[in-house]
């Protein structure tokens, strides 16, 4: 059981967010319902895309980019030229320590 918890925590930490939809919606001041209406999908679809449960079609990504008035490339997290920040290193250390405590049966 402890190994399962450890792997789950690590997987969630390592999982990289691919889309910046939540961030861009916040910046542009557009809510899920408004975006959903403008791109002609359900709010559930927007929620699933935002939480990366479902990947959108290219056509939907293009529609979202138009509504948000951004280049379609801005919908994605950059994958080139990004350095790991000190904050990310510290967060990783905390998560690793927490995972080790779980494995050892401590809280």
Automatic annotation (TrEMBL):
Signal peptide: none annotated. Keywords: DNA-binding. The keyword DNA-binding applies. It comes from the Bacteria. Coiled coil: none annotated. GO terms for molecular function: DNA binding. Residues 21-75 form the HTH cro/C1-type domain. This is DNA-binding transcriptional regulator, XRE-family HTH domain. InterPro entries: Cro/C1-type_HTH, Lambda_DNA-bd_dom_sf. The lineage of its organism: Bacteria, Pseudomonadati, Bacteroidota, Flavobacteriia, Flavobacteriales. PROSITE patterns: HTH_CROC1 (PS50943).
